Amino acid sequence: MLDDRKLEVLRAVVEDFVRTNEPVGSKHIVERHNLGVSPATVRNDMATLEDEGYIAQPHTSAGRVPTDKGYRLFVDRLSQVKPLSTAERRAIESFLGGAVDLDDVVTRSVKLLAQLTRQVAVVQYPSLSRSAVRHVELVHLTPSRLLVVLITDTGRVEQRVVELPVSIADGQLDELRTALNRGLAGRHLDEAASALTSLPSGTRPELRPVMTTLMTVILETLVERAEERVALAGTANLTAHSLDFPVIRPVLEALEEQVVLLKLLGEANDPTTVRVRIGDENPEGLRSTSVVSIGYGPGEASLASLGVVGPTRMDYAGTMSAVRAVARYVGDLLGS
What CA–CA distance (Å, rounded) separates 18 from 30? Predict the structure, then answer.
């Protein structure tokens, strides 16, 4: 266990290295941070931190830089994240408030997060498996052809064109629409399948073949769920941090592998807690990065996750604050 002074020395090393990208010396710490001790004492503390693996000396006669272990302890000891400025909060509200549908929300969120953090932003689309049915709409294309639209509470919209076994009139279409929504609206999609199977038996005999067809199509829609997707923005921001990456290509290749990103984001399924994975805690290809992520959804429900990928030398307090704020606003939008 490190005493409070050594923790303060570690904090000073991390903050100054993040700010300058230069190894930090004891004299520099004494000059910039009011620790109330001599340079010799700081040197002794830095020697202890180095012995325990929290900081390292990149080359002889240089100052010290944080290790992944040092960043981990620094993040774990963060007592508070950096508050967003009034201008940043207004920018989030204004930019996200103009979204018109789910795709627009995701696109705006990922762009905004990349701009706020100057890192690579990643936003996972809410999956159908975590959604509930908001409404089923039936639209006549011809007397024997319908457009079936399934709308979820997360903003997902699934559409299918259906060929009916018989032609139906507008009044019959209204009857079918009412029955579908009475049976499905508000149900979680995992429960919707069982609710669908009981609908044909409760339908008038002359409409039973049509309801059976509609039931089959909607069941197929639920089973053949759209592939999980993520949206990325700010990949070019990696070039601004090129000195932080020994080789940048593995990072770019890992970012292209959506399965890797989905697995990382899937671990951040709590909208109340920001998760930070540092260096070797990440999978192959991302071990020179840190991933800051959080779940998002209405209230305390998590529908998906979002976050940023950047170098381990990042402003953790500011990044965590931005990630949490954007997640909160996106959750509020989906819940409204």
Answer: 17
